[in-house]
Amino acid sequence: MGDVILLAAYLVLVCVRRKVSPGILLEKMMPTFFIALTTASSSAAFGVNMECCEKDLGIDKRIVNFGVPLGQVIFMPGVSVMFLAVGFCMAEIYGVTVSPVWLATAFLIAIVLAVAAPPIPGGALTCYTILFVQLKIPMEAIAVTIALNVILEFAATAVNLFCLQTELVELAADLDMLDAERLRQKKNTYVARGRDGM
């Protein structure tokens, strides 16, 4: 549920601020999203992500060449949501008291661990021990979490890449390095002008 809210928030943000149709934006971003969703691997979606950002979303090549590789390694909002969800779930199962301090700790640790998690399938597994120790969740929860992680990681990877693409659109627009016309055009109907037309 947290991932759905995150996706909707990013989608609405870009559609409103950049005046682009949600249908057009989703059509352009879905190939990357589906590769990540079906493989749980940002590496498998890397080439499609680079092409989508530059050719379909109209992000300047300089931002794409820097932002996509770096973002796929450290920008993981979907994994943060996954860590929070697993923390809440295991706290409920094992009777851990959830206080305001616990909540603040959970949010902080989820964000830090999302950046620290290795960007490979199963990479989040290395972080659950830290999460559970800090949140006073018994270590028996690791066994259940490993099983949950197998399923949740597919969604988390897809959310990470979707959010990365929208963040790069916003960054490019703020730096005046976004081809807004290309962003608003239907996929494969953009007519190149200027340098692209040569």
Polypeptide structure, described:
Helices cover 71% and strands 0% of the residues. By secondary structure, it is mostly helical. The chain has a single domain, classed as Proton glutamate symport protein (Orthogonal Bundle), CATH 1.10.3860.10. Helix 3 (46-56) runs antiparallel to helix 4 (61-74). The protein is elongated, with a radius of gyration of 18 Å. The protein starts with a helix and ends in a 14-residue tail after the last helix.
Characteristics of this structure?
about 200 residues; mainly alpha; Proton glutamate symport protein; about 0% strand
> CATH-wise, what's the superfamily?
Sodium:dicarboxylate symporter
Low-confidence stretches: 193-198
Using only C-alpha atoms, the radius of gyration works out to 18 Å
**Sheet/helix structural class:** mainly alpha
The total domain count is: 1
Total beta strands: 0
Which topology does CATH recognise? Proton glutamate symport protein
CATH class: Mainly Alpha
Beta-strand proportion = under 5%
Q: So what's the overall shape? A: elongated
How many helices does DSSP assign?
Answer: 9
